[in-house]
Amino acid sequence: MSNDPKKKFKGPYKGLSLNVYLFLFFLLIGIFPLIFQAFLDVNSIKKHLLELETEYDSVLLQLQTSPLESRIDTYSELVKFVSQLPAVAEILDRGQERAGSVERDVAFKRYKGVITRAFKKYPDIINIHIHDAAGEELLSISRQADQNFSINSESTELPYNKELTLKIISMVNDDLLIIPYIKESVEGYYGVNHSLLLRMAIPIIFDGEKIGYYISDIDIGILSLSFPSVKWVFSDGSFLTPNPAADSAFELFPGLEKLFQTGESGVCGDSLKIAWSPLYSSEEGGLVLWAGMDIRYEFVHHSTEQIFTRLIVVSSVLGGLSFILIFAFATQMRRFFLALLESLGKIILHEDIPVYNGSNVAELNHFMAQMQALGEEHKRLEDKNKAANESLRKSEWLLHTMANAVQSAIFLVDNQARFVYFNPAAERMFGYSRAEIKNKSIYETVIPKKDCSIVKEKFSAFFKEGGDLLLDNTFEMNALNKDGNIFPIELRVGSIYRDGAWRVVGSAIDISARKRREETLTKMAETDPLTGVNNRRNFMILAGQEIKKCRRYRKSVHFLMFDLDFFKSINDSLGHAFGDKVLKCFSDICVASLRGADIFARIGGEEFASVLVDLDTSIVLKVAERIRTTFHDSQLEDEGTIVDLQLSVSIGVAEVNIMTDDVESALKNADHALYTAKDQGRNCVVLYS
User: Fold this and answer.
1) Is 389 exposed, middle or buried (0-12, 13-18, 19+ CB in 10 A)?
2) Sign (positive or negative) of CA dihedral 416, 405, 494, 455
């Protein structure tokens, strides 16, 4: 066998040099395993990112829909209040036999005024309809395109027909029915925006009997969602609007029916994941509206593409470097392998070859192989750690971006009740910057002093044992801002267990405006708008409570009925504006003459009533006489001129038998005494006997 190192080695494939075979050999044993391991790591990272994006999209859906639930609650209370006003029963020809009631035409005018003011104050109300028990429409008030109001007009935006009315009425039980539907869909920057309309229906109850129905449409505006499309599905699987693909969402989305039965937000789907969140539910059960959002994994796909692109670039660079290194040492490698082949040939041909002691060389080769393996393992672990850190950084960035985008205040509190995180909405709500609030205790910043002991007690138990006294519940409480102002918030909290300790993450919204609206509605439902005293409905409630209390403590009770004499002639001759001035004058005199504990109300047009407790009949008669004489001596001006009027009032007084009488019988007795006073010539006080 020749010893000429310049002779070319001939492999199985003629024409390929030893350099090519060496290149392929090192490429197979060095680069491919590294690339294979890298692809395995990428799949693991992708799986983790899929789980994170699924969780974040579910949270985003809940945060986007929570303000809508609050608006539904607000208008539900509004409809309940307005539908039970006394004028509604009078429109339905009920209550005329009661003292202070008016004819239907007068009730129409009064109710029109109330609803017109409500339309101006609440621009989301589209129309209001009152139907009798058979579904016949008695009153229809609708908002027109020019913001004016139309009474019993057929040009309403959402006209009613008899068939539709009967369908709605058949669905109403004893509580408020809310039927939402999509009014229109508009293609926007973020996809399809839906304009939602709430059709609310409630029965009108009079003396325990269902005498009619109150129906109203509330336009709650456009719900803009930052994703391509939203699916609106009821809990029975039916779509909010017709779906061409299937009649039921349960056919399109496997596992959806089981998820709806839990009543909690969740995710379902195989190839396409969809996040679902309940939008509202009725107190009496029934249908629940769910919002569904496709989870498109755009962040995951983008990140995976970047990782694969970098892997391809790194693989190409490693392959090129291997090629360069092999050809750089081609001559030395060729000589080594030729000598090795020559030695093997001599062994096969039984030629004598020098025997070398290669024990040291073998140990060195074994040591070098171990070092190379350790180096490769270290590089693999380091690359995996870098990829995991990058994934964590991007996940935190995504969470931070989402928290900054929502309108609700979001915060994180550690196990020492100190703030760890504060989003921009929380900064605006409480007045503290993130730098100011970080590591500050909640008790010295956002909790009013009078509430600190209660909050400390509940939070201490939670931080110690991870209890759930406050968790996964939405509740109202008072909060304190940086300026020292106390305001109401709606708070929802959850738990996180990290670094061996429980922590609290919470979201809050300022409900000051909603509370003010509720107080205004309560006042509208309980007081007379002209005089500011109690109305008939609230008088009946307060008087009934007072009789029960006096029955328990054996105290006397007297009912007084007042009727202004010849009031219609005052309206006809001087106008209704002056008549209102007379009513307010009489109301002011009664309020000044009665005690703070006495009950006083306007129960009809010119009729008033009062309840006096724990007084002798003689004293009650003196109080009534003082009111009569004071009103008779009053002088009123009309456009700067004193009007010469002989104002007078007839008053009926009845002592209540606290063991047998109720409010109705007591009012009836006082009313009987009142008409006796009328028969005796008016302007006098008569005691019922």
Assistant:
1) exposed
2) positive
Q: Which residues of 470-486 are buried (b: 16+ CB within 10 A; e: fewer)?
A: beeeeeeeebbbeeeee
Q: Pull the structure tokens for residue 619.
A: 């004293």
Task: Please tell me what DSSP assigns to residue 418.
Answer: B
Q: How many CB atoms lie within 10 A of CB 300?
A: 21
Both tokens assigned to 155: 């040009």
- Phi then psi dihedrals of residue 62, to 5 deg: -65, -40
The radius of gyration of the chain's CA atoms, rounded to the nearest angstrom, is: 42
* Token representation of residue 552: 């328990």
Count CA atoms closer than 13 A to 300's CA, side-chain side.
19
Q: Which residues pair with 151 in a beta bridge?
A: 141
CA distances for 666 relative to 605, 632, 637, 685, 688, angstroms: 20, 27, 37, 17, 10
- Pairing between strand 685-687 and 649-655? parallel
Q: Quick one: three-class SS letters along 428-451?
A: HHHCCCHHHHCCCEHHHCCCCHHH
**Orientation of helix 32-83 relative to helix 512-526, angle to 10°:** 20
Convert the pLDDT of each residue in 411-449 to its tens digit. Answer: 888 888 899 888 888 888 899 998 898 899 988 899 998
- Cβ neighbors of 101 (< 8 A, separation 6 or more) are 90, 95, 604
Q: How many CA atoms lie within 13 Å of 273's alpha carbon, on the beta-carbon side?
A: 16
Total residue length of the chain: 689
Q: Determine the distance from the C-alpha atom of residue 430 to the mean position of all C-alpha atoms in its chain, rounded to a whole number.
A: 20
Residue 498 pairs in a beta bridge with 501
Model pLDDT, residue 688: 94
Helices and strands per DSSP (H, E), number in the chain: 19, 22
Buried-exposed string 63-89: b where 16+ CB fall within 10 A, e elsewhere: bbbbebbebbebbbebbbbbbbbbbbb
CA distances from 223 to 68, 181, 192, 267 (A): 8, 13, 10, 21
- CA dihedral defined by 450, 452, 457, 463, rounded to 10 degrees? 170
**Burial of 666 (C-beta count, 10 Å sphere; 0-12/13-18/19+):** buried
Q: 207 with 97: CB under 8 angstroms?
A: no
Eight-class DSSP state of 489: E
The dihedrals phi and psi of 141, each to the nearest 5 degrees, come to: -120, 125
Kindly report, residue by residue over 22-75, the tens digit of the pLDDT. 556 655 566 666 666 666 666 666 666 666 667 666 666 666 666 666 677 777
Containing H/E element for 549? Answer: helix 536-553
User: What is the value of pTM for the model shown?
Assistant: 0.39
